[in-house]
């Protein structure tokens, strides 16, 4: 196993990219190789959307701020065994549906929600070394991260991967619907005015369309461990 770079302050590796590109798998495996925690920031937005419910994106900023004030995220463990907790409890299992993904994407355009999430993520990264995955980790939340990556893949391939993942979880979804949801989310996430999804300055961009998950991990590890 390659050895993780030694740093005095927490090591932060950012992994951004669109829905269905495989960020969570790569991020959790990379975190395992480095012996550090993995932060799934999409899960934070999904948990908020699921808990607040449909239409929360239309609430006033004041009400949203008040509701989010009751949310406290924490991390336990490392690598694949990292647990993201909300108020000390595991996140609800149903946050992984495309429906919750769409709600999360809608909630994620709201300024007070983005401000809260950014603060919560920075707070976690102040004390814990992280592989942080999401949309704006390298560009906005951790611009000073030691390593930044942006994973991409063609939408059709991402829809196929998401369908395989949902099927493995016993929640099969039609390919056409999954592709439509992914395309809608891409549009929302790329065109929003605050923290739009894009490769961060200095990020290594990896097109994963035609390569395996193991090959993506090798490329990322080569940068983090091999080239130091
Ligand atoms: O990665 P995911 O599919 O679980 O993310 C769900 C939604 O949450 C995504 O469509 C947009 C939002 N999100 C965000 O705006 N910023 C992040 N850092 C992570 C997710």
Main features:
Rossmann fold, globular, five-stranded parallel beta sheet, 228 residues, binds 2'-deoxycytidine-5'-monophosphate, 15% strand, 9 helices, three-stranded antiparallel beta sheet, single chain, alpha/beta
How would you summarize what this structure contains?
Helix content is 48%, strand content 15%. The chain has 228 residues and is an alpha/beta fold. The chain is globular and about 50 Å long.
- Major sheet description: 5 strands, parallel
Strand order of the largest sheet: 2-6-1-7-8
What general form does the structure show?
Answer: globular
Query: Which runs of at least 5 residues are low in confidence (pLDDT < 50)?
Result: none
How many DSSP H or I helices?
9
Could you name the CATH topology? Rossmann fold
Helix share bin: 40-55%
Query: What Rg is obtained from the alpha carbons, in whole angstroms?
Result: 17 Å
Total tally of structural domains = 1
Give the tally of β-strands: 8
Following the backbone from N to C, one meets helices and strands in this order, namely EHEHHEEEHHEHEHHEH
Bound molecules: 2'-deoxycytidine-5'-monophosphate
> In CATH, what is the class?
Alpha Beta
> How much strand?
5-15%
Q: Structural class of the helices, strands and pairings?
A: alpha/beta
The CATH architecture name reads 3-Layer(aba) Sandwich
CATH superfamily: P-loop containing nucleotide triphosphate hydrolases
Mean pLDDT: 93
């Amino acid at each position: 196993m390659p050895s993780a770079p030694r740093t005095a302050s927490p090591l932060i590796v950012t992994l951004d990219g669109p829905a269905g590109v495989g960020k969570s798998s790569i991020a959790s495996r990379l975190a395992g190789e480095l012996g550090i925690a993995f932060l799934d920031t999409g899960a934070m937005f999904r948990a908020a959307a699921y808990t607040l419910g449909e239409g929360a994106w239309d609430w006033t900023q004041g009400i949203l701020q008040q509701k989010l004030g009751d949310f406290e995220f924490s991390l336990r463990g490392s690598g694949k065994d990292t647990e993201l907790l909300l108020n000390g409890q595991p996140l609800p299992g149903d946050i992984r549906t495309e429906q919750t993904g769409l709600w999360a994407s809608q909630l994620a355009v709201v300024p007070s929600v983005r401000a809260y999430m950014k603060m919560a993520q920075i707070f976690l990264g102040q004390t814990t070394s992280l592989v942080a995955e999401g949309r704006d980790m390298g560009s906005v939340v951790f611009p000073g991260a030691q390593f930044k990556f942006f994973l991409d893949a063609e939408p059709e391939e991402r829809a196929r991967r998401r369908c395989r993942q949902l099927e493995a979880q016993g929640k099969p979804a039609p390919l056409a619907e999954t592709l439509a949801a992914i395309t809608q989310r891409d549009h929302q996430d790329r065109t929003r005015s605050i923290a739009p999804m894009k490769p961060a300055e200095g990020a290594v961009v990896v097109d994963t369309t035609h390569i395996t998950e193991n090959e993506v991990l090798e490329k990322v590890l080569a940068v983090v461990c091999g080239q130091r």
